[in-house]
Every structure is written in C-alpha cells, then in structure tokens.
Design a protein that fits this description.
TIM Barrel, three-stranded mixed sheet, binds beta-D-fucopyranose, alpha/beta, 479 residues
C-alpha cells in the first residue's frame, strides 16, 4: 500500500527565483578596523570598556574578511548561494560620519560586489548593522535627531557609489537592538541606560530609515529595491490570563509596533504612547516626521531566532530582563519593564534560545495578513552550537541542519498559506564576533579557526548547498 509522504519526510519545492542566501555584518567579520582610513565605531569603543564584552574580545581581526573576501566569495559560490547579505561599515565608507566618502572604503565594497556578481551571487547591502562612527555617538548618537539626518546623507553617498552594482538595499538591521539594547539595557554599544534616550533613539532610527529610503531612491537606478530588517518578537503569554495577554500587548508595542507602526502604517501606536507617557510626551516627534518615516518598501526583512514567553509580573521569570542578547542592569523595555520573560519550552541552542519554528510561521503569515502587498524576506535565521572539528578535521553539526530544515519547512508552510516570501538568509556564513558574547557563539555554516583563520565548511553547509542548488528542501540525512 502506498501512502503519501508525511510533511516530515517529503521534499518541499520552493518558488522559482527564491533567493538562497547567507548573512554577515561588517563589524562581526571584517577585522582591519584601523585600515584604509576606517575610524572607530561605537563597537570598537564598547569592546574596550571593561566588563562589556566576554573576555574583552574585539572585532579587531574577527574573521579577517577584509583581507579574505575573495576566498569567502569562492566559498559562497561553492555552496551554491544565490544571494549574500552583508553590511557596509559606516566608519569605513564615511569615516567621520559626515562629509565626503572615503574612496578606499568604497573600493572594498566595490570589489566585494564585483566578485559576488562574477560568481552569480546577488549582493544585498545593509547600510547600518550597529557600527555607528564613534564621533557621531560623541555628538549625541541616535538619541540626537542630527544622527538621522547624517544617516540619510551617508545612504546617499553609498547608494551613489555602489548603485551601479548593488540593486538590493536595506537601511537598518534590527533597529530594536540599536535603540533598546544600545541605550536602554546597555548590553550593546554604546552601553547607555536611559529609557527616554532609548525611545528617542527608536524614533531617530525610524526617521533615519525613512530619510535614507528617500535618499537611496533619489540616487539609485530604477529597479533597485529598498528594505529594512526588523527582529520581530514572536510573543506568547505565559498563561491565558488577561494580565499575561496584556504583557504580550506591551512587548508587542515596544518590541514590534514601535517600528512597524511608523514604517508601515504611518504613525506610532496609541497604546505605546500611553504605556510610556510617564517617561516622555514624545515631543521629539516633529510634525512631518510620520510622513518622512512612512515610505513604500520593496520588501520587508524579518529576522527570527526564537519566540518569547512573557507574563505580567517579573516574579518567577528567569532570567529577569533577559532579551536574548544578554541581561543588563537596566530594562530594554520602556513602559513594559515589569513584564517577566520566561524560558520557552523545547530544545535550546548554545545561546539558550528555544528552537521553535512556529514563531517564524506566525510572523510571516501575520505580516502577510496585515500587509498583503508587501513581499517578505527572511534576512536572518540560524543557530549557535559549540562546533569544533573532529580528529579528521571535519565539523559535524547535525543540530544546525535540523534547525534550518525545520525553519525552512515553516517558511514553506507560510508560503503555501499565502505569505509572499522571496528568500532566506541563513545567519551566518562564517563563525564570527557575536557582540557581547565575543567569539564564544558559533553561528557559521563555515567554521573559522580563530588562531589560523582557516575556513572549514561544516556538514550543514554541504546540506544547505544541496537545498540551494535544487531549490528543494530535503530532510538532513535523506538520500
Ligand atoms: C541578530 C543580529 C546578528 C547576530 C544574530 C545572532 O540579532 O542581527 O548580528 O548577532 O542576532
């Protein structure tokens, strides 16, 4: 008797033209922090502040991608990737954060884009993945409005110089982390802990995004696409009580709708303004700002790793004020700082994050329902495991392939249920500098030996290559 294959074992076909990618960011892989005119960013400074980053590690060398990008593009080609998401280091492209661009900084990205294009890989450039020029932080950082204006000027320089090669642009990566971890809990650079600064930063990141979209569109050739990547929180109440459901609402407001509202709907949600009214009257939002932020997007990037389980009070929550990137002494949730975060059930990655692909399905189908006309792209998803080479030098990481398989199956299900998802970017191409965790967390498809900087594709990379080459998802280990 023949039976239909179950979804656990059936091969799933993805839409034609679906982008198979991997993602990185400048500070996490490039190294060469003082070369060719690059100036320090807030992360260079933060790494040097005592006790902020595990063992005081820095991105000084990282994966040395600045010198090894040709080898890295060859690796990507060997993996059959059709797209690569990377970020431009603002302090490399425009070293003081204002004034003219640095030709040497731009040349690096020109060479990278050319190599990618020669290899048939679509470059997807993010303008800002957290490495603000330190000079701009000293002039106020993201809580200051002028940083948004400067970001738009930088976007225009970058778009003008690279728009002949790069047609896919993303303004910001995860502005939630920049605003609320950088200025709220202080676990990320620049390490400030002021809830009002965090809200001001969120608004100026929104404004910077909107101004940068306009600036890019004014310099890029027709057909170029502009987007933003958000780390949307997939939220579950600890219990079905009204109080826990209100905790979900609060975190959704200050975690998700603080960006989705102005970027996609043209304004801040009323409940967010009410939740934070004891902190600020939001007068830093000037008339005209909502229209400036609310720009048409060609697609929305979604970064997803794990869901969050929340309750109305912190009692019993462990660890308190955890957000996934480390617990600080202050809350990253202005207006919701009594909400408790709980460990989601299920297997965990080396970050302690629960493996739960249903959160990705919920986010994608929820966005598709609210914004049916907006194409989506999963711009980050992946997992850290303590991968080390075996005696034969091979790196076997079955958990990563299983993780990616399960999330791609969820993505496929979301597409079948109507979500217009155009591509998937695995975080990350290479093991790299994982922010406050230093080099302890390995997210790469490719292992990096930090002593020799040798690259070794892990078993999951070979598996992912087959998925990318065939456009079909087979379970890891299937013939
Ligand atoms: C995301 C960041 C990325 C990396 C992954 C693990 O929040 O965008 O740089 O740190 O988490």
């Amino acid at each position: 008797m023949t039976r239909p294959a179950s979804t656990a074992t059936a091969a799933l076909r993805f839409p034609a033209g679906f982008l198979w990618g991997a993602a990185t960011s400048a500070y996490q892989i490039e190294g060469a922090v003082a070369e060719d005119g690059r100036t320090p960013s807030i992360w260079d400074a933060f790494c040097r502040a005592p006790g902020k980053v595990h063992l005081g590690e820095t991105g000084d060398v990282a994966a040395d991608h600045y010198h090894r990008f040709r080898e890295d593009v060859r690796l990507m080609a060997g993996l059959g990737l059709t797209a690569y998401r990377f970020s431009l280091a603002w302090p490399r492209v425009q070293p003081t954060g204002r004034g003219p661009a640095s030709p040497r900084g731009l040349d690096f990205y020109r060479r990278l884009a050319d190599d990618l294009l020669d290899a048939g890989i679509t470059p997807v450039a993010t303008l800002y993945h957290w490495d603000l020029p330190q000079e701009l932080e000293e002039d106020g950082g993201w809580p200051a409005r002028r940083t948004a204006e400067r970001f738009a000027a930088y976007a225009a320089l970058a778009g003008e110089a690279l728009g002949d090669r790069v047609t896919q642009w993303t303004t910001l990566n995860e502005p939630w982390c920049s605003a609320f971890l950088g200025y709220g809990s202080g676990v990320h650079a620049p390490g400030r802990t002021d809830p009002v600064d965090a809200l001001r930063a969120a608004h100026h990141l929104n404004l910077g995004h909107g101004l940068a979209v306009s600036a890019l569109r004014s310099v890029l050739p027709a057909g170029a696409q502009v987007s933003v990547s958000l780390n949307l929180h997939a939220l579950r109440p600890l219990t079905p009580s009204a109080a826990d459901r209100d905790a979900v609402r609060r975190i959704d407001a200050v975690g998700n709708r603080v960006f989705l509202g102005p970027m996609l709907d043209g304004g801040y949600p009323e409940d967010l303004l009410a939740d934070t009214a004891h902190l600020t009257d939001w007068s830093f939002v000037r008339p005209g700002d909502p229209a400036a932020v609310h720009q048409r997007l060609d697609w929305l990037g979604v970064n997803y790793y794990t869901p969050s389980v929340v309750s109305a009070t912190p009692e019993g929550a462990a660890p308190a004020r955890e957000d996934g990137h480390g617990a600080g002494s202050a809350s990253p949730w202005p207006g919701a700082d009594r909400v408790g975060f709980h460990r989601a059930p299920g297997e965990r990655t080396a970050m302690g994050w629960a493996v739960d692909p249903s959160g990705l399905y919920e986010l994608l189908t929820g966005l598709a329902r609210r914004h049916p006309e907006l194409p989506l792209m999963v711009t980050e998803n992946g997992a850290a495991y303590p991968d080390e080479p075996g005696p034969d030098g091979a790196v076997d990481d079955p958990e990563r392939a299983a993780f990616v398989h399960a999330h791609l199956a969820a993505l496929h299900r979301a597409v079948a249920d109507g979500a217009d998802v155009r591509g998937y970017f695995l975080w990350s191409l290479l093991d790299n500098f994982e922010w406050a965790y230093g080099y302890t967390k390995r997210f790469g498809l490719v292992h990096v030996d930090y002593r020799t900087l040798a690259r070794t594709p892990k078993a999951s990379a070979h598996w992912y290559a087959r998925v990318a080459r065939t456009g079909t998802l087979h379970p890891p280990g299937a013939a």
